Amino acid sequence: xxxxxxxxxxxxxxxxALAIVVTGCGSGKTQEAPAAGNASAANNVSIGMVTDIxxxxxxxxxxxxxxxxxxxxxxxxxxxxxxxxxxxxxxIPNLNQFVKDGRSLTWGIGFMMGDAVKQVADQNKSAxxxxxxxxxxxxxxxxxxxxxxEGSYLVGVVAGLMTKTGKIGFxxxxxxxxxxxxxxxxxxxxxxxxxxxxxxxxxxxxFNAPDQGKATAATMYNDGVDIIFHAAGSTGDGVFNEAIxxxxxxxxxxxxxxxxxxSLTFGNEVTLTSMVKRVDHAVNQISNQVAKxxxxxxxxxxxxxENGVGLPENNPNIxxxxxxxxxxxxxxxxxxxxxxxxxxE
Length: 345
Known about the structure:
Pfam families: Bmp (PF02608). Residues 48-342 form the ABC transporter substrate-binding protein PnrA-like domain. It comes from Paenibacillus konkukensis. Keywords: Cell membrane, Lipoprotein, Membrane, Signal. It is found in: Cell membrane. This protein is α/β, with parallel strands linked by helices. It folds into 2 domains: 3-147 and 279-302, Response regulator (Rossmann fold); 148-276, Rossmann fold. Helix content is 41%, strand content 19%. It has helices spanning 3-6, 8-16, 61-76, 91-100, 114-123, 148-162, 177-193, 210-222, 235-247, 263-266, 279-291, 320-335, and strands at 29-32, 46-50, 79-83, 105-109, 129-132, 141-146, 167-172, 198-203, 227-231, 254-259, 271-277, 298-302, 309-310. It has a 7-stranded mixed sheet, sandwiched between helices. The radius of gyration is 20 Å and the shape is globular.
């Protein structure tokens, strides 16, 4: 396996000389114990994280956020824990539980929590909050968004070059702006390299329904789709489960994962690649700012240039010539030669 195949992003960063800057109610709670004997200045820091309804083990961005917070805890001897939301009615009570406990920082994970974070922040102006995937207009909130359209464009290039049937699928959770950015970037990437390919789009309406993801994937594969990209939280687990069942009969079907390198969960047999969104780095970075007394509030937007999105380091199922094309397109996006849209033209 060549170095290009092992680490396409490392090669990209070297090429363009960039540094990585990225960076309750009906709920379950887990506490991460601080490491003993670490006399860090952050050992009085206590951070809480509220998941959306996808849950902390969604194999996606909630899980990535929690991994970033655990890494922060291990390095800084800080107390971290989470509350899982079973429905949107849990958002405000869960956020308030951490705020009323006097946490140094309270995280809300996911676009759907934007209104809840805004309300809690406005009612508790001395509290510090942060949110992933939404912009909250409050001085005591740090908002982190990602250019999912840029990373999705690159996996669209992969799908467009590697499809054998000319039919490619996209499975989304709810049709909200952040997921539309995944869809639009993906379709634009496919179109750039394979304008004759058809992209079949389906929104299940849920981020926590693996059965719906499995049924949707079955329909797509039956209709001749050979590559499916999902941006659907744990609903996407069902897409993978369907592909795993079919893989023994059809070696030419694939899934493109999301948020994390999902080959680590579902294996390389079915995972073509993933659109990695480095939520863990962002959570770790901002939590460290709190520990240092440097929290400012405001907005961060992380794309390819900030190494906030991209492909995993290892892509054993993608040929070297395709990875080289992906790198070429990534450089053009970073340099502004390609402007990836965020809305349908």
